Amino acid sequence: MRFSVFAAALACLSTASAAITWSLQKASNPTADQADAYARIEAAMKLAVARYGRLSSATKTIRVYYSPGVPTAEANYNGDLRFGSVRTYMNERTAMHEISHTLGIGQTTAFNTRCAANNWPRATPLLQSWDGAGVRINCGGGHICKSDMFESRISYREHLESRQVSENAIMKISR
């Protein structure tokens, strides 16, 4: 039953069209480290932007950088997104998480206002249809998560299943 609800929600949401564009800033003569990082970052960004494209109508122009001094990855509402040198963070889930920051999660007054009021009119009912009436979206430290999910796991490939990634994306882009 939960799978059919999830499939129906995705079918409805998959008709949305996103206009997220991005470009990876590259060195003109990359080192082996840079070339490897660029390939991983490009793969992650392609997957993440494609998923946002299926699940949202978000629009944003994002400038992506490989910045070895960044411990994990980071992004800002201004559209800058940076991946550090740790390869385990160069994946779709991290890219989705950081893209959400470029869209305003944890970066804008609108986000803070919604968090304070628990005002997620599309996301909360959808989440509750999957996990029960008591589930709510929590905000903290510039992030959002289900009340029963520790949000920072979104960056770790080994802790997330595809459904959790989709839930996260839907919660972040549903307003």
Please explain how this structure is put together.
The protein has one domain. Helix content is 44%, strand content 17%. The protein has 6 helices and 6 strands, in the order H-E-H-E-E-E-H-H-H-E-E-H. The protein has a 4-stranded mixed sheet with strand order 1-2-4-3, covered by helices on one side. The protein has a two-stranded antiparallel ribbon with strand order 5-6. The radius of gyration is 16 Å and the shape is elongated. The two termini are 25 Å apart. The relative contact order is 0.15.
Q: Number of helical runs?
A: 6
Characterize the biggest β-sheet. 4 strands, mixed
- Give me the side-by-side strand order of the main sheet: 1-2-4-3
Contiguous uncertain segments of 5+ residues: 1-17, 148-161
- The helical percent reads 40-55%
* Spatial separation of the terminal alpha carbons: 25 Å
Mean pLDDT: 78
The tally of domains stands at 1
Order of helices and strands: HEHEEEHHHEEH
Rg calc: 16 Å
How much strand content do the residues show?
15-25%
Estimated structural class: alpha/beta
What is the tally of beta strands?
Answer: 6
Shape: elongated
